[in-house]
Specification:
Elements: E1 4-12, H1 16-22, H2 27-35, E2 39-53, E3 60-65, E4 77-82, E5 90-106, E6 109-116, E7 121-125, H3 137-157, E8 161-162, H4 165-178, H5 201-213
Helix pairs in contact: 3-4
């Protein structure tokens, strides 16, 4: 018998039970999600695992995947698959789980919101209103309401922060739609006085959004009418 040991580091796809063995403190948060009638999945798992296999006794399956049209691939890919478990000829051991995200699905909308349960940040809000124009307006509004309820619970009851300006803008759209808050436009003209202190455009917008968010204001930066956003500074 010839045993081969393989160690995996980085992105992993693991069962929920394996992940929670290392982070049992997250279980209560997941139970709260279920109690709301929502579902979830654990994604972006980063960790380390080890597999012991006996190549002579294990059955391998060869898969071919044709080129992906969405990323303009010219050639397909081959992968090798083998079933592993807790008994020989293949044994898997999960050594550690460093981090992961929780993707929350509301109603029929899968992956509506993605959060980091450790940093307590909302990492992504799905753009429901940007769906196909063939969708019926009533259904789209129902989906948007479901996403809104998830984010509102995370932010107002669970104390999660919005991680970046894209998330802030998506949340602003939902708040504008369902809370009908008072809103106003603010135009600014900035002059570069000390170029050595000027941050990048992305950093400036991030800090700008965070500044107003801490004061109870949600900001949306108007998009350029052209194909690309014109950046006043690099």
């Amino acid at each position: 018998m010839s045993i081969t040991r393989i160690r995996f580091k980085g992105d992993l796809r693991l069962a929920e039970s394996d992940v929670l063995r290392f982070h049992p403190q997250v279980k209560e948060f997941l139970e709260e999600i279920r109690s709301k009638g929502w579902s979830y999945s654990l994604t972006d798992i980063v960790g380390e695992a080890e597999v012991e296999i006996d190549p002579e006794r294990l059955t391998f399956t060869l898969h071919y995947y044709p080129p992906r049209i969405d990323v303009l691939e010219e050639e397909g890919k081959y992968t090798v698959e083998a079933e592993v478990g807790t008994e020989p000829p293949s044994v898997i051991r999960i050594l550690r789980v460093e981090s992961f995200k929780v993707e929350i699905s509301a109603g029929k909308y899968i992956g509506a919101v993605k959060v980091d349960p450790f940093a307590k940040t909302v990492e992504h809000i799905a753009s429901v209103l940007g769906w196909s124009i063939l969708e019926r307006e009533k259904k789209r509004l129902a989906d948007a309401r479901a996403v809104y309820e998830v984010v509102k619970w995370l932010v107002e009851e669970k104390g999660f922060r919005l991680s970046n300006r894209w998330v802030v803008e998506e949340y602003k759209e939902l708040v504008d739609m369902f809370e009908k808050p008072y809103r106003f436009e603010l135009k600014l003209e900035l002059t570069v006085k000390d170029e050595s202190k000027v941050p990048s455009w992305e950093d400036l917008l991030r800090d700008f959004c965070e500044f107003f968010l801490e004061r109870g204001l949600l900001v949306k930066v108007p998009r350029s009418r052209g194909l690309f956003l014109r950046k006043p500074i690099p």
